[in-house]
Write a structure and sequence with these properties.
Blueprint lengths: L6 H6 L3 H10 L2 H8 L3 H15 L4 E4 L2 E4 L1 H27 L5 E7 L7 H12 L3 E7 L2 H9 L5 E4 L8 E14 L9 E2 L8 E4 L5 H12 L5 E5 L3 H9 L5 E4 L8 E6 L3 E9 L6 H13 L4 H6 L4
Parallel strand pairs: 3-4, 3-5, 7-11, 8-9
Antiparallel strand pairs: 1-2, 5-12, 6-10, 6-11, 6-12
Helix pairs in contact: 2-3, 2-4, 2-5, 3-4
Keywords: Activator, DNA-binding, Transcription, Transcription regulation
Family: Belongs to the LysR transcriptional regulatory family.
Protein name: LysR family transcriptional regulator
C-alpha cells in the first residue's frame, strides 16, 4: 500500500536538524556556528519550522532563546529521530568509503589460532578504519549466514557450490593417533586397515564427518565413532589420550602428544573465500581482494601444512 506524508511533515524533515540544534544550544549564534551556516539562514529555517507546525516554538530568554511548551514537546518527540537519521547517514556513508565501514567476516573452526589472526592483523595495518565483526563457526553455519546476509565474507573449507567463491588453496587431511597408539610408528596408513579402530569425529552435519563417512564407505566399512564433538582442540586432546583416532587437518599449533600419519591416497579439501550474491560495499571488496592476494602465504600455507 502506498503511503504519503502530510504536507507539514514533508516540509519539516529537512528543517529538523536546524530546530534540534537551536533547541539544544539555546542560542542562535552558537547553533549557526555549530551547523556552519550564517545566523540569518538559521533564523529563516526556524521561522519555516514554526510556520509548518503552526505554533511558536521559541521565545526570547535573555541573550538566548528557550523552547515554548509546544517547542519542548516537538523537541522531545523528534530529537531521537534526528539522531537516528544522523547515525544512519553516517553508517551509509562509511559503507561507501573503502577506507572505513564494517565487514562481517566468518572463518571455520579449523582455522583461527595463527593464520586468520595474522591475516587480519596485516589487513588492519593497511586499513585501520575498517571495523571487522568476526564469526567462527562450522561450514554449513557460515554458508547460511552468507546466504541470509548476516555475513559479508567467509573463509570456508570447502566452499559451497551455490555461492561465489575464490579458491585460496587446499587443506590436506591426515590420520592422527596418540603417541602411544599401536599405529604411531607408521608413516602411512591404508583406510581399509582401520575398520576395527574407534574414531573420534565431528557431528554428521560437519563436512569433515561427511568426508570420514564417505572415505570409510569407499574402503568397505562404517567407522565406529565413539565420541562426537564440535570443538577441535578437545577432539585432538581425546585422540592424544588414545580414546580413538581421527581424520583431521594439520593443527595450526603443534600438538606434542599427536602422531600424524599420511593416508596412502592423499585427501585434501579446497579452501575458498565465499561471498554473497549481493554487490559488496567498498570495504568488503577491499578485504576480499586483500585476502585473495595474501592467501597463499597465510590461510592456504597454514592450513595445508607440510606434506608427508
Amino acid at each position: 500500500m502506498d503511503e504519503t506524508f502530510a504536507p507539514p511533515v514533508e516540509e519539516l524533515v529537512p528543517l529538523l536538524a536546524a530546530f534540534a540544534t537551536a533547541a539544544d544550544e539555546g542560542h542562535i549564534t552558537r547553533a549557526a556556528q555549530r551547523l556552519g551556516v550564517p545566523q540569518s539562514s538559521l533564523s529563516r529555517r526556524l521561522k519555516a519550522v514554526e510556520r509548518s507546525v503552526g505554533v511558536p516554538l521559541f521565545q526570547p530568554l535573555g541573550r538566548g532563546i528557550a523552547l515554548t511548551a509546544a517547542g519542548r514537546e516537538l523537541f522531545d518527540r523528534t530529537r531521537d529521530l534526528v539522531g537516528a537519521l544522523d547515525d544512519a547517514v553516517t553508517v551509509v556513508r562509511s559503507h561507501a568509503d573503502a577506507d572505513s565501514g564494517l565487514v562481517r567476516f566468518g572463518f571455520p573452526l579449523t582455522l583461527g589460532p595463527v593464520s586468520i589472526p595474522s591475516l587480519l592483523a596485516d589487513f588492519h595495518g593497511s586499513a585501520p578504519r575498517i571495523r571487522l565483526h568476526l564469526v567462527q563457526a562450522h561450514g554449513e553455519a557460515l554458508a547460511e549466514m552468507i546466504r541470509d546476509g548476516r555475513l559479508d565474507l567467509a573463509v570456508m573449507i570447502p566452499a559451497p557450490t551455490d555461492l561465489p567463491a575464490i579458491t585460496l588453496g587446499h587443506q590436506r587431511i591426515h590420520l592422527y593417533v596418540g603417541r602411544d597408539h599401536r599405529l604411531a610408528g607408521q608413516g602411512t596408513a591404508e583406510l581399509c586397515d582401520l575398520a576395527a579402530e574407534s574414531f573420534i569425529a565431528n557431528p554428521p552435519t560437519y563436512h569433515l564427518r561427511h568426508l570420514l563417512d564417505t572415505l570409510c564407505a569407499a574402503a568397505g566399512f562404517t567407522p565406529k565413532v565413539v565420541f562426537e564433538i564440535t570443538e577441535f582442540d578437545t577432539l585432538r586432546a581425546l585422540v592424544a589420550r588414545n580414546l580413538g583416532i581421527a581424520l583431521l587437518p594439520e593443527p595450526e599449533t603443534p600438538h606434542p602428544d599427536l602422531h600424524r600419519i599420511a593416508l596412502s591416497i592423499p585427501v585434501q579439501r579446497s579452501v575458498g573465500l565465499v561471498s554473497g550474491h549481493h554487490r559488496p560495499t567498498p570495504a568488503v571488496a577491499r578485504l576480499r581482494d586483500f585476502v585473495a592476494r595474501h592467501a597463499y602465504s597465510t590461510v592456504a600455507a597454514a592450513s595445508t601444512g607440510p606434506s608427508t
